Amino acid sequence: MEKRIDLQELQPNGYKYLLGLDRYVHSSDVSHTHLHLIYIRASQINGCSFCVSKHSLDALADGESTQRLFLTSAWRETDLFSEEERIVLAMTEEITLIHQDGLTDATYLLAVEAFGEVYVSALIMAIVMINAWNRVGVSTRLKVEKV
Question: Within a domain: residue 145?
Fold first, then answer.
């Protein structure tokens, strides 16, 4: 697969605002563990190999275990994720797959009960942000660099 256009070069203002959203999300109260799970799971669903690779390496650098990374796509079948992490992963899947049922009432209510509305709103922003980056990565065919 050949890399396509460079949005940063051809659409610098739009790219700048997307980077601004990225910085905003990283300055929020969302835990690094939750961000890593969101970024990796959404990127898996969206088929963004660049983002799966980048965020898996970032998670490893932050101390995430390889076993949990390997099982992120099968999180329902393991007990290695806490109840809060399971809520974050469910939210990520439901928002990423918005064309199905979107964020269901059941998941939303669990999230608000577990985290409160402010944290849930920050989680939603993080999920929206990585889905935007995934669409950039997939549509422009960003290449995974071998490490």
Answer: no
Inside any domain, residue 114:
yes
Are the C-beta atoms of 123 and 42 separated by less than 8 Å? Answer: no
Integer Cα distance of 102 and 98 in angstroms? 4
| Residue 65 falls in which region: left (phi positive, over 0), alpha (psi -120 to 50) or beta | beta
Separation CA 139–CA 87 (nearest Å):
29
CA distance 70 to 47: 16
H or E stretch including 13? helix 12-27
Per-residue pLDDT reduced to its tens digit, 65-92:
999 999 999 999 999 999 999 999 999 9
Q: Is residue 124 part of a domain?
A: yes
CATH of the domain at 94: 1.20.1290.10
- Cα-based distances in Å from 27 to 20, 122, 123, 127, 142: 11, 10, 12, 15, 25
Is 18 inside a domain boundary? yes
Q: What is the pLDDT of residues 81-120, one digit of tens each?
A: 999 999 999 999 999 999 999 999 999 999 999 999 999 9
State if pTM tops 0.90.
Answer: yes
The count of structural domains within the chain is: 1
